[in-house]
Each structure stands twice: as C-alpha cells, then as structure tokens.
Amino acid sequence: MMVPLGWIGGVVGLILATAISLYANALIAMLHEFGGQRHIRYKDLAGYIYGRKVYSLTWALQSLNLFMINTGYIILAGSALKGIYVLFRDDDQMKLPYFIAIAGFVCAMFAICIPHLSALGIWLGFSTVFSLVYFVIAFVLTLRDGINSPARDYSIPGTSTSKIFTTIGAAANLVFAFNTGMLPEIQATIRQPVVKNMMKALYFQFTVGVLPLYLVTFTGYWAYGSSTTTYLLNNVNGPVWMKVMANITAFLQSVIALHIFASPMYEYLDTKHGIKGSAMAFKNLSFRVLVRGGYLTLTTFISALLPFLGDFMSLTGAICTFPLTFILANHMYLVANENKLTSIQKLWHWLNICFFSIMSVAATIAAVRLVVLDSKTYHVFADL
User: Fold this and answer.
1) What is the pLDDT of residues 13-57, one digit of tens each?
2) Per UniProt, which keywords does this protein have (predicted)?
3) Which pLDDT band, with edges at 50, 70 and 90, does 279 fall under?
C-alpha cells in the first residue's frame, strides 16, 4: 500500500481510509434495526430498502468481494508456506502454486470441520494470538533491519502517467483492506442494545484495532523503502526460528480468516439446499465435502493461476468495495432517514455518493490498466 503512494500519500491515505471506513460502517450499523427488525445480512438490508433487484445485485457484489478476499488469503497462506520452505531448502524445486494448493487443501479441511460461523468459538481466540505473534515478530525484525540498513529509496516507481494510475489503484486497495461488505453478518449475534454495541465494536476496530496494521506497514516501508515486497516476510532478516514462527502464524491466521469471509457463501448454500440438523449427519457432512470443497478448489485454482492477484483486488475494490461500502451505505441511510435529515445532511450524503461513484469509475480504469500491464509481465501459475 505504501510503495505506490510514498510517505505522504501512504500515511494520509491510510488515515483517510480508516476514517471514511469507520463512517461508512457506522451508517450500516445504524440501519441494523431499521423498520423494526434486525437485518443480519447486508443483502437483506438492501432488499428491505430497495427491493428484490437490488437484493440480488448486492448479493452478487458481496459474493465477488468475499471471493477475492478468500483468494487473497489463500495466496497469503501459500506465500507463508513457501517462506518456511526457502528457509531450509532454497532449491527452487517447490513453486508458489504448489504451496497455494497445499494451503487450499488445509482450508477445505477446516471448512468441512467447522460447520458454521458460530462454531469457530475458541478458534477466534487462537486467531487473535496468531495475529499478535505475527505483528510482534514482523515489527521487531523490520525495526532491526531498518536500523542496520543503509539509506533507502522512497521514491514512487514509474513514469508520471503510471504514477497517476497506480495512485488511484492504491486508493482502491486501501479501502479494500478495511472493508468486507459483511458487517451485519459478523455482528449477527451481538447482544442488545445492538446498534450501541456495534458502534463500540467499530470504534475499537478503527482505533486500537488498526494500530498493529499501521505499525507493521509504516515500519516495513521505512525499513525497505520502494523495494518492499507484497509479502513483508520475504524482506526480513533475522533468526530462522523467528521467521518460521511468523510464517506459521501467518498461515494459520489465513486459514481461520478465510473461513470467516467464506461463511456467507457457506450459509447461503446450506440454506438453499435445506441443510439442517446434526453437522455430523452423513448428508450434511457429504454436502460440506462436495460443496465447500468445490468452492475452495475453484478459489485455490484461481489463486494459483493468478498469484499477482493484487491487481485484481484493486479491480474488486473499485467495482465492489466502493459501491457496497460507500455508495450504497450513504444512499441507504439517505433513503431510510429522508424525512429526518436536514438539507445540509442530505447534501452531504449526495456529495459522498457522487464522489465515491467517480472514484469507483477512476479506480476501475486504473485497475484494468494495471491488470493488462502485469499480464504481459507475469505468466499464469507464476512463482512470485
């Protein structure tokens, strides 16, 4: 995120992305009990306000958005496994696509064993521990490298024209990093008072929760400059055991996080096919093996086929995250509270809708250009 933006653009961009993401998610949270009922799925809220067509469109955009998040996690998990491999055998025999395939298989096994989101239970605690371990090790090693390294180059690479497009694409990546389009699903079981507790969770997430992200992002860019790789642990130097532990936690955290963001798809498929009763019943277990296994097989194949997926994530941020999180959230709030808002408040929401619509179009053009350029540089099943 920092490389195409530089220090000023990167720092300002991250802070702005945090602020506007908090604001947009707060709008969604305040509509959670709209119309005298709770809306535990984002598509249900959109359908309640607009009707069936927007319900279907929202579900399509959300599914694409979550699919791209899942492919990103599988690539991350595969990169972590490869990171461990090269620490002991840097013989170029095992390529990144092989490790992506292994990661996909583990994710499928986890998805089959965890029947629904609420069954994660203790795994969410492990997820927190894995994240903290990764952040601490990454921060310590990058800080040490930064202190011991010579002067770094922080210039933004590329020509003047390419810098414009990469900056716009980076903006899409910034909002993609903070938003999932599934806030109602994540908060579906929150206690009363629902909206108040959702707001507490959001304030925590976008203040204390983003500090480790800021710390590792800024320290990593400071330590390695414009040569920073997409997967930070590929840059760090230090004791082998620390790098192994960081890669292991990155891998395990990816497996758990992917399951969270794949859960809306799992829930939709389970509901559509009438899956009820014991999770270990033969019918239900067979269904998870075939359907979830098939979904993750497709996800893994796309991840291995196009490991330079960051370009496609910019595209997803442009065509999914901007409309779902910013355009739709502002318009839903405007429609739901039209009789309660002042003229200034209405104007504010319309300005947001227009601004993010323009950003969505611009980011789409920039992302398509980046995909075309990188498609000439990288081949399918590339070993990045």
Assistant:
1) 999 999 999 999 999 999 988 888 888 888 899 999 999 999 999
2) Amino-acid transport, Auxin signaling pathway, Cell membrane, Membrane, Symport, Transmembrane, Transmembrane helix, Transport
3) confident
Global pTM?
Answer: 0.87
Q: What is the 3-state secondary structure (H, E, C) of the chain?
A: CCCCCHHHHHHHHHHHHHHHHHHHHHHHHHCCCHHHCCCCCHHHHHHHHHCHHHHHHHHHHHHHHHHHHHHHHHHHHHHHHHHHHHHHCCCCCCCHHHHHHHHHHHHHHHHHHCCCHHHHCHHHHHHHHHHHHHHHHHHHHHHHHHHHCCCCCCCCCCCHHHHHHHHHHHHHHHHHHHCCCCHHHHCCCCCCCHHHHHHHHHHHHCCCCCHHHHHHHHHHHHHHHHHCCCCHHHCCCCCHHHHHHHHHHHHHHHHHHHHHHHHHHHHHHHHHCCCCCCCCCHHHHHHHHHHHHHHHHHHHHHHHHCCCCHHHHHHHHHHHHHHHHHHHHHHHHHHHCCCCCCHHHHHHHHHHHHHHHHHHHHHHHHHHHHHHHHHHHCCCCCCC
